[in-house]
Amino acid sequence: MKKLIYLDYASTTPMDERVLKKMNNYFTINGIFGNPSSYLNIFGIEAKNSVEKARCNIANIIGSKKEEIIFTSSATESINLAIKGIININNSYYQKNIITSISEHKAVLETCYYMQKLGIKIIYLKNSNIGSINLNDLKEKITNNTILVSIMHINNEIGTINDIKYIGNICKKKNIVFHVDATQSIGKYQLNLKKINIDLLSFSAHKFYGPKGIGVLYIRNNKKKFKINPLIHGGGQENGIRSGTLAVHQIIGISEALNISVREINEEKKRIKKLKQQLWDGIKNINGIYINGDLKNSSPYIINIGFKKIFNKILMIEMKNIAISASSACISNTHTSHVLKSLGLTKNLIQSSIRFSFGRFTTKKEINYTIEYLHSTIKKIRKKY
Ligand code: PLP
């Protein structure tokens, strides 16, 4: 068996051992296992204190207040809560609209599609040819009836970066609520919400070496501007916005994972940028190869490469000891990529594209191996088919 190499960090990351070690104290009778809502017994108090410490830590890191952090089960849940929760069932939303972009993650697009069925108009912004939204287009599309703008920071398929600071300023001027899907950027980019006008921000731990099953929705405390209504009703946890017993071990996990990521952010980003460049330099002379998106104006953690006349699924089968991805993990089994389509790629070109994504445990040696393997496999496929 050849060595296994993981280059699919954008779909999920392995948990960091240091995170697991911290979490291990929160399961058993010898640890802090209590229910944080049981505030009259010592087990509950201990658990509640741990949760609030973690909440404070996350708030400090992203530049928010601790009451503005709501724990959820995933970025998908946070996104649903942000977009659906903006609606107050007592108000009329006739002729109101939400603005988003065609290359958002399915968590945003499918939620918007659901809102459309409720009668809200959804306005989709188109991309530039490198995949970021057109800011003038956004300015033109905002109307007095716009209730929300939802734009992702980093695209999960091609790594394109949207200028969320600029968009935040546009939304602030027009007094419109701004939601950011920061699932691919938290832990990799240092966002300071004191300096950026973001009202709602979604992310999850499993993209930065924390556990799966825990996410955050940041909700700016601005009662005059908007209110988020709950989707899950029950015991009133999380200020009544998200009921359900808090998963203390997961909350400890996301907090510790964020701590480590932020502590190592600059060094790690520098190292990973070099790995991305190394991969591209090593294969860019292969015939019929090109980048989807842009090499420079994109996240160092993601590169999406097209291999003309090579079917991506065949390349993936031939290279099965290297974990790469045909597109986003959420759509790779069902549809062709809507993100690549938004760049104007034909179906054939979409089916010739592969996402490589890098992370904490990727090494130079692994990239060298991938380069050699890509050269030989492409030669083999072009001879065979
Ligand atoms: N948004 C983006 C940009 C993503 O990359 C993902 C996951 O791939 C999600 C949302 C959904 O995240 P989760 O798996 O935590 O629900």
Termini separation comes to 25 Å
**Count of distinct structural domains:** 2
What form results from the Cα inertia axes? globular
Percentage beta strand: 5-15%
Number of strands: 12
Order of helices and strands: EHHEHEHEHEHEEEHHEEHEHHEH
Rounded to an integer in angstroms, the radius of gyration calculated over CA atoms is: 22 Å
Q: Based on the structure, what is the oligomeric state of the protein chains?
A: single chain
Which blocks of ≥5 consecutive residues have pLDDT under 50?
Answer: none
CATH class of the largest domain: Alpha Beta
* Biggest pleated sheet: 7 strands, mixed
Number of helices: 12
Features:
alpha/beta; seven-stranded mixed sheet; Aspartate Aminotransferase, domain 2; 385 residues; Aspartate Aminotransferase, domain 1; 12 strands
Describe the protein's architecture and organization.
This protein has 385 residues and is α/β, with parallel strands linked by helices. The protein folds into two domains: 130 residues, Aspartate Aminotransferase, domain 1, CATH 3.90.1150; 247 residues, Type I PLP-dependent aspartate aminotransferase-like (Major domain) (Aspartate Aminotransferase, domain 2), CATH 3.40.640. Helices cover 36% and strands 14% of the residues. The protein is built from twelve helices and twelve strands. It has a seven-stranded mixed β-sheet with strand order 2-8-7-6-5-3-4, with helices on both faces. It has a three-stranded antiparallel β-sheet with strand order 9-10-12, with no helix packed on it. The radius of gyration is 22 Å and the shape is globular. The two termini are 25 Å apart. It binds pyridoxal-5'-phosphate (PLP).
